[in-house]
Write the C-alpha cells for this entry.
Amino acid sequence: MTSNPALAALQFLAGRWDMELSAAAFLPEPGAKVRGSVAVEWIEQGAALAMRMGDAATPTATWIIG
C-alpha cells in the first residue's frame, strides 16, 4: 500500500521483524549489539514508512522513511 512511487521497492519491509542493530555511532560501545523486534508500517496513506522498535505501547525508537 504505497502512494509514494519512490518507496515501491520497499513494500516487502512492511510487517514485524526480529532485528539486530550493531556498528551504530549512537550505541554506548563500539562492539555493542541491540536485539529486539521492529514493526514496519505505512503511514500517511502510504506516503512514508514508519519503523518502530519495541512494542506499540512504549516504542524505544522510531524511524520514518520517506
The chain has a mean pLDDT of 88. The chain has no helices and four strands. The beta strands are 15-22, 33-43, 48-54, 59-65. The first strand starts at residue 15 and ends at 22.
